[in-house]
Amino acid sequence: xxxxGDRPEGAADGQFCIxxxxxxxRCGVLAAVLAAGLCLSGCQGKNVETMAxxxxxxGTEDGTGAADSVDGEFGMxxxxxAETTVDGDTAANPGASTGSVEDAATVKELxxxxxxxxxxxxxMAGTAGMDNLIALVDRTELxxxxxxxxxxxxxxxCELDVPLAEQIGSEKHYIKDLPAxxxxxxxxxxxxxxxxxxxxxxxLAEKMPEWSLHNSDGSIFRDKSGLAxxxxxxxxxxxxxxxxxxAAIKAGFDEVQYDYVRFxxxxxxxxxxxxxxxxxxxxxxxxxxxxLYASERIHAAGGRISADVYGVxxxxxxDQQIVGQNYVEMSRSLDAISPxxxxxxxxxxxxxxxxxxxxxxxxxxxxxxxxxxVLAGLDPKTGKxxxxxxxxxNDAVDAAIVGGEAVSGNNAxxxxxxxxxxxxxxxxxxNDAAQDAKDAQAADGAxxxxxxxxxxxxxxxxxxxxxxxxxxxxxxxRPWLQDFTATWVKGHISYGPEEIRAQIQAVxxxxxxxWILWNAxxxxxxxxxxxxxxxxx
Length: 537
Description:
alpha/beta, Glycoside hydrolase, DUF4015, hydrolase activity, GH, hydrolase, single chain
């Protein structure tokens, strides 16, 4: 999951804010990333960072940079309200559980498992601390673990049957006994998801330079952090990533979750020369092509597949084109899609919320409502069908969904209708006259459609929650939520039990049923989770 890469691999994929002379334009637009730095608006005590620098870690967007940390503690916080955090290095009270997922033997036969999970780094999964996290699952409504199998550095964290990984030396087995871990989880009916970082792979890029991104001078492209990326257009890269996923399924994981399924957003990307590797394809076609290819491979191996995406791509076509993540198209081939919608990763006034981090419920609800409408083929700004095929609310300056109510007003539609107006007064020939009449008719039709849409009441909160995805969209939406305090955000609040629960409730109120919590250090707030007994009630 992140802005640290793709999704905070635990961290954040939400929308980010480009500082445009401190003006409040649509926060989260990535268009300026290639020319200027993208930053978390309101970063306190931090330099402006490019999206790549802050998001390179699809799972450490919480800003702690502790994705591989096994540090932490179990106890009471200094915040008001009991905040019990569980991490791998401390003892936790054991708790019996019947498990929240169907019998392990039938998991793969289910159409969908209602995942409620947490992220676990490779180093944590390989320590005794893992027992504490499994015990947390036992005691609460949690039923799934997202475990690093191929991390942000390109290393496989456990032994898998992937010949190329052994050949290039990309194995760092933090998890010494994977079979035992898998068996323990299966006995407790825990749904296992293998996180596989995709195109951010410095090891593969260095060892197989022909598969890496290259600058126009032929040198290997490296982002702000000095890391090389592989080329998302290369089929050989697709094959390697699919082979890792297949191996994870064969090792006992139920699902493969690809992270950093995108192009780098580093400003240096403007120097990259893709050459003939594109074969005429756009970035979004390359990424959607990969998810379709990987889906076929993973499904054939008997598993399910998901991918993490930036929250901003839900309703911004411009941003989709920059990173290559087309929310709707990817949802056609995946079993689940996980937008990183951490409130702390939205800039001021995203969704018309002054400080999104300070309003976790409203921020998550707005993002998930936008998802509902986009996947249903509606304009996320108005909650209605676009006035014309050429008009979309995805690029509206503000995704105006506030407090569960869709705000009407489609400037894009107005502009499109205006641009289609024609006088038809000076016909030079019969053909021109006919064309003028045709144009005028089209303009009248566009205006009529716009007028009709304006008379249609905006959808309310309940109606949005009941929307069904359009034909062909099959992915379950399973967002990443924030279980950390973003101290670097101006106006931030401390995240404890209430803030965690508020985000989860927002997901439910938007009409979705699944979610995953992210904390880079794997320290989770138990007070924000229901107990097994409470869930059963």
